[in-house]
Amino acid sequence: MIQLTNVAKYYPTGFGKTYVLRQISLSINEGEFVSIMGPSGSGKSTLLHILGLLEEPSEGEYRLLNEPVQKLSEKKRTELHRTQIGFVFQAYHLIDELTVYENIETPLLYKGLSGSERKSRVAELLDRFNIVAKKDLFPAQLSGGQQQLVGIARAIAARPRVIFADEPTGNLHSDQAREIMELFRKLNQEDGVTIVQVTHSEGNAAYGNRVLNLKDGWMV
Ligand code: ADP
Ligand code: ADP
Questions:
Q1: Where are the beta strands (DSSP E) in 14-54?
Q2: Which atom of ligand 2 is closest in space to residue 136's alpha carbon?
Q3: Cβ proximity of 55 and 49 under 8 Å
Q4: What residues make up the domain containing 108?
Q5: Does ligand 2 come within 6 angstroms of the Cβ of 101?
Q6: Closest Cα to atom 14, ligand 2: which residue?
Q7: What is the CATH number of the domain that holds 188?
Q8: How many structural domains comprise the chain?
Q9: Is 24 helix (H, G, I), strand (E, B) or coil?
Q10: Cβ(106) to ligand 2 under 6 A?
Q11: Which segment of the chain is annotated as a signal peptide (predicted)?
Q12: CA 101 to ligand 2: nearest atom
């Protein structure tokens, strides 16, 4: 499903360039639950952003669902992003001016679903995540754990085949974190969604089937 070949990422600095990632080659099969670990600054978020089509590699090749990502047109890449990928952020990244309901509905508007399809899809997610009573509230009125539930509901609303999660429980208390991780486990095991998470926590990594370790931009 995911294949990186000799991927590197660098930023220009002074006379030269600073590498954040070097010679990354990896494949992830559909249905896997993979954790990316490593010290702060080792390139984890950059790698996740490349996988989630939020950043482009400087060198090497990325194939997602057999598509050569860098060679696709902007339109095709956006479509791949909107239909196949969900992204979950540590700080939730919900839209403050929209209600819970509207935040979850946003990707369905992009996908062009009809009003009635959107309504039933959002209702199903509100119900599944036990947040029906919160649907008309704004993000600032929710606890961190509830905001992350909304973040995940939004990420999976368009029924993507892969979810990328960057420290999804990094800002949460441990009971809320456990609830979120159980949710990822269900999405992976029951719905067959492929999951790639960045985490500092061995406990979170234990939910997955495989760990990729980064150090100073190298896979070790
Ligand atoms: P991690 O997620 O493991 O903490 P990151 O991928 O966030 O690591 O960052 C890896 C390194 O890349 C850090 O040293 C960071 O300062 C650097 N970096 C990230 N983004 C940029 C950028 N836009 N320009 C220059 N350096 C960057
Ligand atoms: P419009 O801008 O046309 O009013 P919205 O984006 O507000 O449309 O809503 C789109 C659909 O979602 C409509 O069918 C609307 O009834 C429904 N909807 C929006 N907010 C809520 C909510 N809080 N609870 C239930 N349904 C909602």
A1: 16-28, 33-37
A2: 23
A3: yes
A4: 2-219
A5: yes
A6: 115
A7: 3.40.50.300
A8: 1
A9: strand
A10: no
A11: none
A12: 23
